[in-house]
Amino acid sequence: MRVNSWNGWDPLRHVLVGRADGTMVQAPEPAVQRDFPEDGFPLGTYGPMPAEMTEAANEQLDAFATMLTRRGIRVSRPTPIDFAQTFATPDWEIPTGFGCMPPRDVLITVGTEILEATMCYRSRWFEYLCYRPVLQELFEADPDMRWETAPKPRLTDASFVPGFWDEYRTVPKTGQLARVAAHDLVLTEEEPLFDAADIARFGRDLFVQLSLVTNRKGVDWLRRHFPDHRVHPVTFTNTHPLHIDATWVPLRPGLVLHAGERLADPELVKYFEVNDWQVVEAVQPASWKHYPRLSFCSPWLAVNILNLDPGTVCVEAGEVRLADQLNSLGMEVVPVPFRAVGPFGGGLHCATVDIWREGGLEDYFPRRCGRF
Ligand code: NVA
To answer: Pocket residues for ligand 1 (CB within 6 Å)?
Structure first.
């Protein structure tokens, strides 16, 4: 066993796949407020996800893990904790946790290091505990593994803009997009905050989305933590930015898939183009006529795909047009039924963390451009 992964496409040897067990609709807190009036959880209510949904999600996660194993990829799984308990620190208390389906939100592998992100939801503060058994195993097996954790945040009220959600939902779309571009959202700059899933790894370049869960101080912390990398804060025209891996998706050296509705900063596109990368607009996601209950993700979860190597990618089985598009770009597509997993926090990329990909650190962007 080894820890080694520098980008999103090198051949995958070992991966962590999440579990849906015990996932909760979280109690409201400053950073997030669930509101599913038609699905039995109106604003202010909380509780376990319906048992039949949890079972269906776990069936798809287990089948995905089995398929990966059959392809010779080692699979590790988290150890869920009781997410229905009250969690507390000296600063706050919250009646529920969340779950451990999307390990990508919490952990990122950069080279021989696995880093635990700060997170900014109180309900997710203790989620790292689910991954500790795997991290301990890796630490014991691989003498070169670096096990790091970002400063655990206080998450007092000072970390959040008071009344943000009540105010933000009254702002028209253009105003919301201006707020996103200025990164004037729910998080203050009290302390570094980031989710691991806001980081996209392209070798020496790490692109970090400023979002509802990642602030400027979080990016600054990452920049200081990875001095051998170029760490770039980026935003897209998405009114509810949350995790970069349904927006700006590396496919292989020279090719990035972009959920084009979420326009990229022209300077970012130029940086890719002057370095001979092709930016491809993804086709519209398949119609989610039967949009899953209790889901907080958009249909752009379609592009939340997982590379097995630079020529092979796992895509949700219903996303047939996207599969055709990827085929036409020379990629082999492995269709994976995964719709039932969406309401538990994401798609195939969210549900996984690369532990070992072959390959080393490379610079895919030798030319500087604008602020990049
Ligand atoms: N929050 C994103 C999904 C993240 C993988 C979206 O809803 O598009």
So the answer is: 242-243, 245-246, 297-298, 300-301, 304, 346, 350
Catalytic, 225? Answer no
Long-range Cβ contact pairs of 313-316 (< 8 A, separation 24 or more): 313/251, 314/64, 314/348, 315/348, 316/347, 316/348
Q: Which residue in this structure is represented by tokens 């991954």?
A: 131
Cα 315 to middle of ligand 1, angstroms: 15
For ligand 1, the distance from its centroid to the CA atom of residue 52, given in whole angstroms, is 23
For ligand 1, the distance from its centroid to the CA atom of residue 139, given in whole angstroms, is: 31
Helices (H), the chain: 51-70, 132-141, 164-168, 173-181, 216-225, 266-274, 320-328
pLDDT tens-digit series, residues 30-60: 999 999 999 999 999 999 999 999 999 999 9
| Residues whose CB is less than 8 angstroms from the CB of residue 58 and which lie 6 or more positions away in sequence, other chains included | 19, 20, 21
Q: Relative to the CA of 346, which ligand 1 atom is closest?
A: 5
Shortest-distance Cα residue to atom 1 of ligand 1: 242
State the Rg of the chain over Cα. 19
Whose structure tokens read 């183009």? 273
Query: Of residues 130, 297, 314, 350, which has the active-site annotation?
Result: 350
- Give tens-digit pLDDT for 265-301: 999 999 999 999 999 999 999 976 667 899 999 999 9
8 A C-beta contact, residue 115 and residue 3: no
Distance 211 CA to ligand 1 centre (A): 11
Distance CA 248, CA 110 (A): 18
For a ligand 1 pocket test, name from 294, 304, 306, 349 the mutation site with the most ligand atoms within 8 angstroms of its C-beta. 304
Q: Is 195 a catalytic residue?
A: yes
- Token pair of 54, please? 């949890």
Phi/psi at 192 (nearest 5 deg)?
-65, 130
